[in-house]
Design goal:
The chain is of the alpha/beta class. It is built from 16 helices and 23 strands. Bound molecules: nicotinamide-adenine-dinucleotide.
Length: 486
């Protein structure tokens, strides 16, 4: 490929596109070819963005929530107006199918702005009287200042806007760093800022590696708050790096999400949804199911039907609407995901479909793409790394259980605690099990139904803090108690 055919991204600082002298290669996962150059930003670029955000803060935070909401709504309109362009770009950059980007990523990105534009209008604060001392106490909430936002590659614009929208709705200004592997749609969104009426410096986007640009943002003394979505390992670095500054942290991390299928479940509905929850977006969603525990009396029937359904979950060229899955994000990630299947085999497990059995049917152009078919494994011990570590690919394991207590113990037997699904028609059982599960989210007889008003986040190694309507507002503001004596 000629050099000048690459898409070359620039940082967005103080309302302007600013070129960066060094770049990182970004690949089209469906072909394995470099097609884009992402700025390799460091301390200098991050500092320039933080200064621009600082300058913009007094003006932006002084606007009323209503005035800010108008800008957010306009941005949502503009993203929707360019939905198809964004969907095509997200698919090319990330490897996901165009259909998924068109129906999930981009509509939700626009909705994130719309939701927080509305939500910010409805918060109230507390007030309490202390008549015996003649005092009235009330709370006020103020934006924190410059928010540092760091997002991963799996749902690029979706997760980035999930942070930008509540941060600016609450009156903060932001410096955001998307994943170096999927930066294109964030850069495209910067082109809409001016038309949306976002004042210069309110949203700054600095592209680059986590170890350089991300580290500079987390270590910047004038960024008092970091909202991070990514892996548990990176969260550890961020916690340590930010500790000397006592930064406010929100950490949305990995998962090893169980599905508990009881004998009284609606099996057809359960299988249809659990195939989707295991393999959607190539299994590259933090909420994807990766351990399916099935009550022993229906285990054989479930496994047979589930494998048959998984075989129909087609993987191939992302632009083909017949395909449910596209390519994984990178060669390294594909190799990592494959290594888990190899490990399962070496431990005596059975691979029923997918890796090593049915291969995606690919045209010549895509032969070097990072494709892997939906893979179902059984016979893996709960103690295996395959059942303990986050794989984050199209791989799911099926295993039997006996009774409610064992189901809960198995579900909770990992260091993660993000999401679980429970399949049963028994309301009492559903309530009991949901209460005992150590996860931030429990979906019963469904998956990925999200009410953005309610808290989102994980327990244990899956995160610290919650995001959502009120939770994000609380995170992106500081509360102050004012006491007045008359
Ligand atoms: P990652 O931790 O490697 O990277 C996430 C972001 O952090 C990227 O922008 C990266 O550049 C940056 N980063 C890396 N090192 C950094 C450092 N030292 N300092 C500052 N920033 C740094 O994660 P990933 O591989 O991009 O994403 C996959 C992970 O994200 C999975 O574990 C997945 O479960 C998790 N995830 C969680 C949620 C959630 O809401 N809980 C949602 C999506 C993804």
């Amino acid at each position: 490929m000629e050099k000048n055919t690459f898409l070359i991204l620039e940082n967005f600082i103080g309302g302007k596109f600013v070129p960066c002298p060094a770049h990182i290669d970004s690949y089209d996962p469906s072909t394995g070819e470099v097609y884009c150059k992402v700025p390799d930003s460091g301390e200098e670029e991050v500092d320039a963005a933080v200064q621009a955000a600082k300058e913009a803060f007094p003006g932006w935070s002084a606007r009323s929530p209503d005035q800010r909401a108008q800008v957010l709504n306009k941005l949502a309109d503009l993203i929707e107006g360019h939905l198809e362009e964004f969907a095509q770009a997200e698919s090319r950059d990330q490897g996901k199918t165009v259909t998924f980007a068109r129906t999930v990523d981009i509509p939700r990105s626009a909705y994130n702005f719309r939701f927080f534009a509305s939500s910010v209008l409805h918060h109230t604060t507390d007030c309490h009287q202390m008549d015996h001392v003649g005092c009235l106490n009330y709370t006020v909430r103020c934006p924190v200042g410059v928010a540092g936002l760091i997002s991963p590659w799996n749902l690029p614009l979706y997760l980035l806007t999930w942070k930008i929208a509540p941060a600016i709705a609450a009156g903060n200004t932001v410096v955001a760093k998307p994943s170096e592997m999927s930066s294109v749609t964030a850069w495209m969104m910067c082109k809409l800022m001016q038309e949306a009426g976002v004042p210069s410096g309110v949203v700054n986007i600095v592209f680059g590696l986590g170890s350089r640009a991300g580290d500079a943002l987390v270590g910047h003394p004038e960024v008092p708050l970091i909202s991070f979505t990514g892996s548990t390992a990176t969260a550890r670095h961020i916690t340590e790096r930010s500790a000397p500054y006592c930064k406010k942290l929100s950490l949305e991390l990995g998962g090893k999400n169980p599905a508990l299928v009881f004998a009284d479940a609606d099996l057809d509905r359960c299988i249809e949804t659990t195939v989707r929850s295991s393999f959607s977006n190539q299994g590259e969603i933090c909420l994807c199911t990766s351990r399916i525990y099935v009550e022993r009396s229906i285990y054989a029937t479930f496994l047979e039907k589930f494998v048959a359904a998984a075989r129909k979950w087609k993987t191939g060229v992302p632009s083909d609407p017949c395909n449910k899955n596209g390519a994984l994000i990178s060669k390294e990630h594909l190799e990592k995901v494959r290594s888990f299947v190899a490990l399962a085999k070496s431990e005596g497990a059975t691979v029923h479909c997918g890796e090593g059995i049915n291969h995606p049917d690919l045209p010549k152009r895509n032969i070097n793409g990072y494709f892997m078919a939906a893979t179902v494994i059984s016979g893996v011990a709960d103690s295996s790394r395959v059942m303990q570590d986050e794989i984050f690919g199209p791989v799911t394991c099926v295993s039997p259980f006996d009774g409610e207590d064992e189901a809960v113990a198995k579900a909770n037997g990992v260091r993660y605690g993000l999401a679980a699904t429970v399949w049963s028609r028994d309301v009492g059982k559903v309530h009991r099990v949901a209460r005992r599960l150590q996860t931030g989210l429990v979906w019963t007889n469904c998956w990925l139904v999200r009410d953005l008003n309610l808290p989102f986040g994980g327990m244990k190694n899956s995160g610290v803090g919650r995001e959502g309507g009120r939770d994000s507002y609380h995170f992106f503001t500081e509360v102050k108690t004012v006491t007045i004596q008359h």
